[in-house]
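An example makes the point: we let one protein speak, the chain in one-letter code, the fold tokenised, and here it is:
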Amino acid sequence: MKPRGRSEPNGALTPFGFLCDNQKDLDELLDCLHAQGVRESQLKERLEKRYQDITHSIHLARKQNLGLKSCDGNQELLNYLRSDLIEVATRLQKGGLGYIDVTPEYEARVYSLESLKDFGECVITLQAGVVKKFLQGFMAPKQKRRKHQGEDYVAKAEEIDEDKKMAEEAKVASATEKWKTAIREAQTFSRMHVLLGMLDACIKWDMSAENARCKVCRKKGEDDKLILCDECNKAFHLFCLRPALYEIPDGEWQCPACQPATARRSSRGRNYTEDSAEDEGGDGEEASDEPDAEEEEEEEEDYEVAGLRLRPRRAARGKQSVAVFSSRQGRHQRKKQSLHPARGPRQRAAPDNSADIDELVLQTKKTTRRQNLELQKCEEILSKLIKYRFSWPFREPVTTEEAEDYFEVISNPMDFQTMQSKCSCGNYRSVQEFLADMKQVFSNAERYNQNGSHVLSCLEKTEQCLIDMVHKHLPGHTYVRRKHKKLSAECQELEEQEGDSESEPLEHSRGRKRKK
């Protein structure tokens, strides 16, 4: 072992450690350390625990050849380029974003590529195999107008200068051609790798089927029950659609938001003025009812798309239009009943084909958020009622010590304390459930206590306070309870007699006493 220390001014060395540069010195040190020494035993224990690591470090430090590993840079880069090509093609195939079929033959052909020209043609073929709607950036195609967009949008689009349109199309085409030219003229594999990375950046990987998330419930999983729209590539669970699908349909499938407008919408948009003129025609109208009924049936059959029964959106009409065509609609209904007497009730229709799924999800979220806010208001109302001075008979459950025959009369007891526990546990799903328990509390008190009792007087005051708070905090809901007894007029003077009533409450043969 070689000592290591600090040099003193007189040339002496003050050691503070020793350096072991071989395994023999380390073994000698372990043999010299005494097992009963306070510090030596601890050092010996630690050295024995890390003996393998220390010997390995000694061998690495004694290596004479510390040079870099020899490798062929071009060959390494070539291998990385091949693996990246196969990886991009595989992701395109698994994600449903392209027409590339990655087979063992395709992989073998890629691994056999040697020249830059062959690599360039392979990358260009890979770009051509990507579905155009899944390209972005400078490779993104010009967006087409959807057929069901409004007339205002079409009018605005027509105002765009034709020269500007042609310039945009030429810009996209020229950018892609420049990229292809750069691939064909690439002189190094590094340049080819950069151009392949540009293609990877221009692919919408977030639209891949591997990242599919249901558009309705926003959840992943259950891939065997997940269906992709062939138009927008959005994913939907079969059981999240309305009506639900029991199996994946054959052929192409489009979600309700992407289904094109068909004959039914055009028929719904007919000029109703002409129909009203036909109604005034007289005898010839009854003969035309049957073709109209058949036309409606055909329109309904046209909307059976992949198991989805769609109901087109009906424009709002004024009272005058409704009055003019009520007789015609009645005749259509009678004719359809005579044509299909054994037909069962129609199933609930799915959202119309012009409504986006995002709107359905947003509406569901708004409804849930509104219900949560209303339930929070209910909890606040209950807290205020518990603090209300006349609510003492309803705060806690009735015990047999207070009323021996209470449970013989009341089969469904309820009180504010129980309701508060239900609020804390989240048992209430709607305001109606909360108000139903409130009605149960007051109905039980009204049923058990006799007319003129102090509890009934408190009931009227507390219930009126509840009605006021519901009107204030829950304007969309009303509280109405059928009263079975005529309450005593004593409640009118209850506020003035509050001090006396708290010290000496009224007692009746069947009434709850206030706890002192």
In short: The chain has four domains: 2-61, 74-207, 263-339, 361-503. Residues 99 and 473 are 58 Å apart (CA to CA). The chain has 19 helices and six strands.
